Amino acid sequence: MNNKSQRTFRNQTKEILLHVTKLLSSSDYNDVWNGIVIDESSKNDSNGNRQFDVAMQALVDAYQNAEHWPTRRQILGRGALVNMIRDPTIRYDIKQLEHFIDFFLSPHITSDVPFGEKKVRLSTGEILLVPNTIRNCISTKIIQQYHLYCRETHFEPLGDSILYDSLKHCSASTRKSLSGLDAYSVNGSSAFAALMNLCDTLATYGAPPHDIVRLKSILHQSRNYLKLDYKLHIARFSRIADHCANHGLSDPNEKKWSENCDHQHDQ
Predict the structure, then answer these.
(1) Hey, which bits of the chain come out as E strands?
(2) What's the CA gap between 142 and 63, in Å, rounded?
(3) Which tens digit of pLDDT belongs to each residue from 115-165?
(4) Domain ranges of the chain
(5) How far apart (Å, rounded) are the C-alpha atoms in residues 259 and 249?
(6) Which pLDDT value is given to residue 177?
(7) Do 198 and 219 touch, CB atoms closer than 8 A?
């Protein structure tokens, strides 16, 4: 049905309905007709608002459960497709490759495990025993963090295909559980779980539900920040007290285990 036929059909249908309304309520048929139109419009608006609220709540839940900032950025975006166009890398030097290797072998990306080892045979026939390692996040997250690090340090990185290929050939397991890791990692995860359980306990004692939701949201965000992002902010010397390793590892009560910083913590 073309547009002209649709308009004709709508007009004829409207005239029929108005005629029926006029027969049923001859004196007030205009008010009755306007009331029907308003009721249908209100019903549609109500359904639309309900669907909008459900969609917004789904976005809020997805944002709060996202563990990495690139995922959160995509959730808050306009829903456009990710631009896959990249500048082709024609050639690279060994410094670029060494720069990336130093990055993903750093402690905040790769961790040694206390069990298992691999044998590496050199061209001379010598065999080296290398301990097994695991990565704290998947390859995509490693490369995203590396690009952010390169932008902050004004370093020209390699292309994504070469970075993925480098991670593939430098094999390592991806962390899927806390088994075999340092005790502080396990204790940190257990601490956040205990705080979550404490929030549930407070709820049983009559704490307001909105306060419980807010506390859990803060704990969830703190856990995600300490898991990855905080490690990128740590530096040997920093004007931010929480990011300065020299300041954080110094014991103010023991001179042998403390070192003064040559800068102010004013940020």
Answers:
(1) 110-121, 127-135, 173-174
(2) 20
(3) 666 776 777 777 777 666 677 777 788 888 888 888 888 888 888 888 888
(4) 3-65, 94-174, 183-257
(5) 9
(6) 47
(7) no
